[in-house]
Structures are given as C-alpha cells and as structure tokens.
Amino acid sequence: MDDFKPIVVSDIKSYSLFKNKNNEDIYCIGSLKKDKYIQLKKSLVDSIMVAISYFNGENTIDDIHLKLITLNNLNVDTNKLYNILNNAGFIENSCNANLEKNEYEKYGINIATLKLDKSIYFFKLIAKYIKLFFIISIFVILTSINYFIPVFYKMMNLNLFKIVNSSIISLIICTVITTISVILHEISHATIATRFSLKPKSLKLTLYLYVNSMIYICIPGIYTLSRKKRVYLWLSGVYCNFVIFCISAILQNYTFGTIHNIFLVSCYSNLGLIVTNLVPFLPLDGYFILSTILKIPNLRKNSFKVLKNSSKRTTFKVVYLVYFLISILSIFYLIISQIISIYRSFILGFNINNNIIDGLKEIKMYIFIFFIICFSKIKTLKSKTIT
Length: 387
Description:
With 387 residues, this protein is mainly α. It contains 15 helices and 6 strands. The strands form 2 sheets. It has a 3-stranded antiparallel beta sheet. Strand 2 and strand 3 form a beta hairpin. The protein is globular, with a radius of gyration of 25 Å. It starts with 12 loop residues before the first strand and ends with a helix.
C-alpha cells in the first residue's frame, strides 16, 4: 500500500446539489462514468478537488499528503479521502470488492438487465415533441375530471379475478396492464432525462427485499442537474401514470363488458402506481422528491444510521428518526404482505384435493424465484472466495 499510486476516474467533477440561504451550500463530487457521488460542503470543494488532482497515478498517498502541505498549504486527511473515493468506486486501479451499492443491490437480486444504448434515438424523438405531449395531456386531464368519482366507485367494486370468466386469464390481464404501465412510467423518466441531455443506461428488473418485483431505469448524471430539473425528472413517471389513468377513466365510460373491465383495471393499476411511487418511505420517486424538497441529501441512508449513531449529535436528527421508523414499518408491511399472499396461494391449491403437491403448484413461481436467489447467493459467495 505504501508504494500504491492511485488513479482517480478521469471525469470526476463537482456539482451544486442544494443552495441554502441560512446554511452552507451542499455540493457533490461525482462521475458520470461511474454514476457515483460524494456529498460535501461548498467550503471543502476546492481543497478536495485539488487533492483529487494528485490522484493521477504518479503519487502515493503519502506523496499526495506532502504535496498538499508544501505546494498548496492544505492539510487534508489523504488516507480518509482515498478510502472514501475507493469505496465510491472512483479509484480506477483499485481491486476493491466492497463498493457502495444502492438499496436494490444491497437488499435484492437483479433478475434481468436491458441495455438502452440503442434506444437513445427513440427517447430523443419523444423528447423532441414533449411540449406537444404535455399540451395534449392537460386537455385529457381536464376532460377526465368528471369521470373521477364514478370511476372510484367502480374500482371499489372491481374483482380483479373476474375481469373475464377465467381467474387465470384475469390475473394475466392485470399483470400485463401493470407491466406496460410500469414500462411507460420508466420511459417517461428516460424521455425527460434525454430532454435534459442525460443518457439512460439500462432498464433493470429486480426483486427488492427478495419478494417484491420492481422495474427501474438507471440514468447516470441525475445529480448533475439543477434541483428543479431533478424534481421534474422524478415526477415524470407518476405524471405519465396519471395521464394513463385519465385516458382509461374516459374510455371506460364508453365501453362495455370485458373491454370496460380492462380500462377499469388500467385505472386501478395506474392509481396504485401513483400512490406507491409517491410514498416517500420506500426507495422510489417519492423519496427522492422529498429528499430534494427538504434539501437533505441521503435522507434514507442517514436515517438508517440513526440508531447506530444515536449517541452522536446529528443535524435533522428528529427527521431521521421519524423517517427511519416509518420506513421500517413500510418494509415490514411489504414483506408480510408477500408472505400472506404466498400462504393464501398455497392454501388455495391445497384445498383443491387436500394435497400438499397441489399447494406447491400454486406457488411454483415463488419456489422458482427462491432457487434463483439461492443460486445467486452461492455464485456471489464463490466469487468472493476466489477473490
């Protein structure tokens, strides 16, 4: 380590995160290439960027510390800075296997990843006409307002397993509609990101907490945008779902039978997506919007440290504590609801012939997912052992 000469990622820059009237502005140092960012106060930006400039492969950690003192009159803890940069993945010639991960990576499993490199032209095309789409959407929303209350009453009496005569086909219809709505939600994020000159990287399907399937889009550079643009980007998906809800609310009024039920399911599904995504106690759009509005970076991450650091004086400590408690309850609800759903499915199958095999058949998808998780964990452990 004494002879190690670290090389920092080439595109590392500083960006304004939050401007505060009464407190010091908050900045971040990050890389579009790595899509990783480190939060720091404005007063530290210049000295840290100077220190980072010496991480060029020509200096050891001790050399950097000495040069900062003699050449720049700066006393920077270079060992601490190196560890922070290394854990964030900014050191190019490091073999660090303990890089910081997002919540989906830490507490979930990635099922599939779709690269979006070739889709950038599609997003640019939509972004080109975004103002036209927005004007049309406003007209749709205003037209649909009169249908809101009747639709809410109809949704309350809607049986998702009786959309058609077959409960299995009804379930498939619900799943397809929800999946399409989620994908359109993510396309909206990608379109607005492209409008703000960012390039969507990939679309991921993951099992959050190993039981809840989630689709999300990876967009490097969100924190290089202004505060207002970040909020617009995070709201775009929910806005798309609201427009779909409004269109479905209109169309259900002029259709009958199965088609009528399908539009009601679309209303139900998109309303559910709106509410779920706006709840700020899960790592979804609502959380990022809340964190941005309150100007508290890493609200979720820091709140989960509240018990660990309870003896230390922490800014926004009450906010962190409240957020932590409600988040834990939300996570607990997600896990319990899935367990109950699995149990009910098993009992439904078991009651057919009082046979355990029939019960297992009803939850075969969950069993399949369980084996995927086990295989993934074994593969990860083996790779760590080899490393």
